[in-house]
Write a structure and sequence with these properties.
mainly beta, CSD_CS, OB fold (Dihydrolipoamide Acetyltransferase, E2P), DNA-binding, 51% strand, cytoplasm, 5 strands, DNA binding, Cold_shock_domain, 73 residues
Length: 73
């Protein structure tokens, strides 16, 4: 499982990007892969764990788990 920090996330569009902890290109993040109950969203600066998958347009995150779920409102 990889670790990173949310660079930005657009709630209206349901996607954003994660900055990997070990550097490299930003990783695409879609709301449907966020593992939490209720409204699935991420906040800029939030630490997350995720699985890394290769897609047709580059890498994307799967099974995104916020490190601090209690910080989500």
């Amino acid at each position: 499982m990889a670790h990173g920090t949310v660079k930005w996330f657009n709630n209206a569009k349901g996607f954003g990007f994660i900055r990997p902890e070990d550097g490299g290109e930003d990783i695409f993040a879609h709301y449907s892969t966020i593992q939490m109950d209720g409204y699935r969203t991420l906040k800029a600066g939030q630490d997350v764990n995720y699985e890394l998958n290769a897609g047709p347009k580059g890498h994307h995150a799967a099974s995104i788990t916020p490190s601090e779920i209690d910080d989500i409102e």
